[in-house]
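Work package 3, deliverable 3.1, input record:
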Amino acid sequence: MSTETKPTETKVSETTIKPASRGGSWRERLQQLMALAGLVLIFAVFSVASPLIFPSYSNVTTILFSTTVVGLLALAETLIIITSGIDLSVGTVMTLAAVMSATFIVNWHIPVWLGILMTILFGGLIGLINGFNVAILRLPPFIATLAMMLVAQGLALVISNARPIYFDAKEHARYIWLSTGSIIPGTRFPNAVIVLALAAVVAFILLNKTLLGRYDISIGSNEEATALSGINTKKWLIIIYAVAGLFVGLAAIMISARLGSAQPATGLGYELQAIAAVVIGGTSLSGGKGTIVGTIIGALIISVINNGLQIMSVRQEWQNVILGLVILVVVFIDQLRARRAATT
Amino acid sequence: MRKISMGLVALGATVSMALAACSSGAPAGGSAPASSGQKPYIAIVSKGFQHQFWQAVKQGAEQQAAKDGVTITFEGPATESEVEAQMTMLTNALAKKPAALGFAALDSRAAAPVLQQFKDANIPVVAFDSGVDSDIPVTTAATNNKAAAGEAAKHMCKLIGGSGTVGVMVHDQTSKTGQDRRDGFLEGMKANCPNAKVLEPQYGKGDPNISADIASSIIEANKDLKGIFLANEGTAIGGIKATQQKGMSGKIVLIGFDSGNDQINAINDGTMAGAITQNPVGIGEQVVAAAVKTLHGEPVPKVIDTGFYWYDKSNINDQKIQAVLYK
């Protein structure tokens, strides 16, 4: 982990990172408050519109459950967008990893726990390749991950022979339980939500309490300056992409456990949902700032809007229009404040 | 640096040529144009290839091709919204000078100019799955989706006892199959049980995960929900998973479309009341058979109805049904 000499590292963290976090800290907090206020407001509107159904316990668990897959992908996306990169491959890599998981567990009869571990590591491996392409081959992240998006989509179909791979409801009951089961007896509270919460805590610690998080922000603020101050930015970029890949691997397990199968034809479109969640949560696409709490709030806003409009039986065409408008408004307000902060 | 990148380009080119060689050799007997062999070559451009349904159509086409002594290729775009990718496949197929073309249009109007080129080159076109808005195809082999969904509505009405709230979930609002199944079901409900309250149709892109979210919302929003119609396989998987997760198996009448492992299991364990199946293998067979007939100068009917069946627990093991189901 620490091939750099200690003194350089501490110096860097003081010179390059402080300005970013000082400039960001109150604004970030405000941003989170704004996003949270937005979430509360939207929730309140739907609760008034549908007081009996929308805020009920079972509907709220439905909302949380539907947040898990996009939420996990958004965690990965947050780490990468903070480097001022982007990852277009998270959706189809999730699908490919799900196919791998089913291949390991169903076709190769590897024990469930080991298959899960291997799937998460597989996600990390793809992330590592993305990181290598971005950091060493110097491909723009947009292009590198666009290519990976296509490669993963194709490989998922090739490996699965373009057919879904089904887990056995009895033999792999514990795998399916991971997502749809409930560790809290008698509540029907899906485990997937707990997995997302734990993953968010891990991502929060990574971003806020570790070198990875500090360098993530530092690279995103100014990659050249970070490199000049003695940090091996290439190495850290690769590590960040690989760690993000681990979250994608976890998302693969959650989606395939929920469906009891790996569905090789899906995956496209999830990356845009994840990016939308990250952006709504206040992470800047130009890099250098972003929060895990914001991302989770962003993912929740998306699923609350989807669920609320469905509960109210709004025509689906309009659901997309409304979601799009919310993204526009949220990002516009964010830009407005950033500009005001820059001029003062 | 330049040397390295030249090397990479060369490597890339080699790999892609090797891959191209592999993939073109894969489908039944290769894709050699008619000129190079005695066997007539029929190009089939489908709406997709990765869903189970299209794999079954492909299987039927390959079986018939082996029987009739023709070679075929079968390809389709990655998703059923890639109209332009399908156009490219059509132009590529034209360049290979096939003896005949089998074609399932994503957007029949968009395809019209290219189809005209096929006509000008005297290459007969057999449409399948959904109709083409033109008189160029010599015939269309397809399921009557509207009638099939109407049959689903008839069963829904019977199973819910003529009244109650019913949800409708469709894969998309733009494809002809999506529209026909939706409209067929809605009209069927109106005709058979006008007292039932049918909810606004919801669209889950045929993605099981998204469809599961939507189905969960429908179940939450309608405590008096009696049934849901699920208009294709991916939608049905989502509906089944949501119903099971909510502990509502058997309490809601689920009616599906097509088959696949999940629907078959759900019908066997009582989560799903029944489903409509098309005859995908039969569609594939009919496409090739009609093309071959046309090549021999034999007449073919303007429309070939490839049929559909209602299946549930009582007849799922019948031979007639088993023959058209896929896992």
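Confidence is low (pLDDT under 50) at residues 17-36 of chain B.
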